[in-house]
């Protein structure tokens, strides 16, 4: 062993400690290499499934699904009930269910009306998310609404019972539906359902916009939408087109004379260091006499002050 160590030190230039570590490492490598052979008998191989066994298992699963198919069909089948002329702007959830629609879909139609307004023509009902084309085609002849969209500047105040029942439109399902016109809405009061009506905004982005708005305390400028993570420029342009910040807009404000550092730093524009600096300046010099006095804090730059000014109060 001594001769081996001496040979290693002479040929590799190792110190005595390095030689010992090298021999320990070498021993471990040899043991690890031999481990599969030494302990192989401990492990037993799992049985392998043959192709015949796999096919048998799949056939069994298919048979079980086929047995349950009638039950599943009965569960999700829309009942074919007797129909009568109706105005979709007057039906309740229970009345929609009487026409064969499931409760969740009936509630979705009422939610659509509460957000967008009353339906103005027949094809608009077909735009409700989740309404199957087959169901809409069955209801179409009985809808007491105009065949075509009225002028976008004239919404009917009461359509119920005034429009005669129209004949089915043979081309309603040709894919050439009129473009949906979305009325602009307040970005500070919009919920995720309204935001998802804009092309390019889904569940994640709509929730992200609402969460960022809540953290800010409300948007005071449409340009702030560009700060929302993940919004593409074309989507921001669509938001500029279909949403607005009211002129008499009021955002939630933080009191620089009473708010603690932990409260201030919850705002997206105020970092932990800036929050502590604002509180420290207040403790050293007394309460702020005006919001602009926060400019005296060294960490509050001119650019930062312009961003946070609408959210600050005494």
Descriptive report:
It is built from 13 helices and four strands. It has 314 residues and is mainly alpha-helical. A two-stranded parallel sheet has the order 1-2. Strands 3-4 form a two-stranded parallel sheet. The chain is flat and about 105 Å long. The protein starts with a helix and ends with a strand.
Topology:
Blueprint: H1 2-12, H2 16-39, H3 51-76, H4 93-98, H5 103-116, H6 122-125, H7 133-139, E1 185-186, H8 192-195, H9 203-216, H10 233-242, E2 243-244, E3 254-255, H11 261-264, H12 272-285, H13 302-308, E4 312-313
Parallel strand pairs: 1-2, 3-4
Which key terms come to mind for this protein?
single chain; 314 residues; mainly alpha; DNA polymerase, domain 1; two-stranded parallel ribbon; two-stranded parallel sheet; 13 helices; 46% helix
* Spatial strand order of the main sheet: 1-2
Radius of gyration, in Å, reads 35 Å
The major sheet is characterized as: 2 strands, parallel
Number of domains: 4
**End-to-end separation:** 82 Å
Q: How does the overall form come out from the CA principal axes?
A: flat
Uncertain runs with pLDDT below 50, 5 residues or more?
A: 72-78, 153-167
Quickly give the structural class: mainly alpha
> What is the count of DSSP helices, taking H or I runs of 4+ residues?
13
- Report the average pLDDT across residues: 78
Determine and state the CATH class of the largest domain.
Answer: Mainly Alpha
* CATH fourth-tier homologous superfamily of the largest domain: Photosystem II 12 kDa extrinsic protein
> In percent, how helical is the residue content?
40-55%
Which topology of the largest domain does CATH recognise?
Answer: DNA polymerase, domain 1
What is the percentage of strand-forming residues?
under 5%
What is the β-strand count?
4
CATH architecture call of the largest domain: Orthogonal Bundle
């Amino acid at each position: 062993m001594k001769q081996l160590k001496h040979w290693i030190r002479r040929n590799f230039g190792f110190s005595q400690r390095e030689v010992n570590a090298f021999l320990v490492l070498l021993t471990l490598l040899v043991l690890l290499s031999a481990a599969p052979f030494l302990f192989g008998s401990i492990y037993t191989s799992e049985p392998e499934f043959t192709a015949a066994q796999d096919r048998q298992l799949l056939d069994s699963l298919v048979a079980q699904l086929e047995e349950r198919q009638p039950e599943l069909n009965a569960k999700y089948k829309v009942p074919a009930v007797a129909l009568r002329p109706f105005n979709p702007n007057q039906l309740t959830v229970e009345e929609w269910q009487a026409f064969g629609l499931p409760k969740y879909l009936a509630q979705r139609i009422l939610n659509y009306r509460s957000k967008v307004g009353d339906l103005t023509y027949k094809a608009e009902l077909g735009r409700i998310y989740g309404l199957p084309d087959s169901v809409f085609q069955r209801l179409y002849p009985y809808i007491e609404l105009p065949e075509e969209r009225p002028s976008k500047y004239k919404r009917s105040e009461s359509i119920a019972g005034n429009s005669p029942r129209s004949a089915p439109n043979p081309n309603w399902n040709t894919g050439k539906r009129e473009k949906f016109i979305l009325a602009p809405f307040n970005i500070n009061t919009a919920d995720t359902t309204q935001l998802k009506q804009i092309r390019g905004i889904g569940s994640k982005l709509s929730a992200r916009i609402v969460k960022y708005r809540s953290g800010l305390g409300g948007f005071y400028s449409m340009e702030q939408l560009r700060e929302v993570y993940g919004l593409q420029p074309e989507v921001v342009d669509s938001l500029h087109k279909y949403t607005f910040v009211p002129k008499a807009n009021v955002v939630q404000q933080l009191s620089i004379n009473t708010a603690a550092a932990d409260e201030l730093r919850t705002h997206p524009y105020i970092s932990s260091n800036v929050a502590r600096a604002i509180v420290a300046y207040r403790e050293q010099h007394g309460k702020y006499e005006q919001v602009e006095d926060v400019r005296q804090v060294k960490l509050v730059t001119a650019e930062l002050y312009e961003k946070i000014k609408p959210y600050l109060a005494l």
